[in-house]
């Protein structure tokens, strides 16, 4: 019941956002943009985001916009690029196994880069960031491995990559990065367990 409700909400949100992304993607494709270009831009913006999070240089603008807020802004831009690379692939019919591999790999790279910036910036204890990034990778890996054995995990779990990005950004704007990291750990743990149980159940159903 919980899985069905989560799936319903995610699909409802996706049905509203996807047409908008497709229109923007179509416009970008006419300008010569490709999915790989957007994937590379996502990595670049995540590096900029990590740089702000790292606090290696203080850019506190007029004492109003602190470094972590600037990091969150560029992280949101990186997330938008990630959404648009898929939109361009859909509208131009250029989806491919190679593109899917690049997109999935770059998604993991961007998360590692941003969490590294948060670690360098010392917004939370190293052990908390370690658990946040480890559990984030496990959530993503569980879906990838499940798809490899033909188990669909769409809508299963409450902490997919987009949710993790939004959580980190939201708490960054409120200067509560550490609390955001803790929330990511909790929700990623729940998501991983939910997905693990779901795959076990579906595997048993297939074998019976």
List SSEs in N-to-C order.
HHHHHHH
Percent range of helical residues: over 70%
The second-level CATH architecture is Up-down Bundle
- Count of the separate structural domains: 1
Low-confidence spans: 1-5
Bulk shape: globular
Percentage of residues in DSSP E strands:
under 5%
CATH superfamily: CDP-alcohol phosphotransferase transmembrane (TM) domain
CATH top level label = Mainly Alpha
**Mind telling me the C-alpha Rg?**
18 Å
Terminal CA distance: 22 Å
Number of extended strands? 0
Number of helices: 7
- The overall average pLDDT, rounded, is 84
Structural class designation? mainly alpha
What name does CATH use for the topology?
Answer: Four Helix Bundle (Hemerythrin (Met), subunit A)
The major beta sheet can be summarized as: none
Provide an overview of this structure.
This protein is mainly alpha-helical and 208 residues long. It has a single domain, classed as CDP-alcohol phosphotransferase transmembrane (TM) domain (Four Helix Bundle (Hemerythrin (Met), subunit A), Up-down Bundle). The protein has seven helices and no strands. The chain has helices at residues 2-30, 35-54, 67-91, 97-120, 126-148, 161-173, 177-207. Helix 1 packs across helix 3. The longest helix has 31 residues, at 177-207. It starts with a helix and ends with a helix. The relative contact order is 0.13. Residues 1-5 have low confidence and may be disordered.
Would you summarize the structure shown here?
With 208 residues, this protein is mostly helical. The protein is 79% helix and 0% strand. The radius of gyration is 18 Å and the shape is globular.
């Amino acid at each position: 019941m919980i899985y069905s409700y989560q799936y319903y909400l995610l699909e409802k949100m996706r049905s509203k956002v996807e047409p908008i992304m497709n229109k923007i993607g179509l416009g970008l494709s006419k300008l010569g943009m490709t999915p790989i270009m957007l994937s590379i831009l996502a990595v670049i913006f995540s590096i900029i985001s990590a740089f702000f999070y790292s606090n290696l240089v203080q850019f506190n603008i007029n004492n109003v916009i602190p470094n972590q807020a600037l990091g969150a802004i560029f992280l949101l831009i990186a997330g938008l690029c990630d959404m648009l690379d898929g939109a361009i692939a859909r509208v131009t019919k250029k989806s491919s196994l190679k593109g899917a591999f690049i997109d999935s790999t770059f998604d993991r790279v961007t998360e590692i880069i941003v969490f590294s910036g948060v670690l360098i910036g010392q917004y939370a204890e190293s052990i908390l960031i370690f658990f946040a990034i480890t559990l984030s990778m496990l959530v993503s890996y569980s879906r990838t491995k499940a798809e490899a054995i033909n188990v669909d995990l769409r809508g299963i779990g409450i902490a997919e990559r987009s949710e993790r990005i939004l959580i980190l950004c939201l708490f960054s704007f409120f200067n509560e990065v550490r609390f955001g990291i803790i929330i990511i750990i909790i929700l990623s743990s729940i998501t991983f367990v939910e997905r693990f149980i779901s795959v076990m159940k579906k595997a048993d159903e297939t074998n019976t």
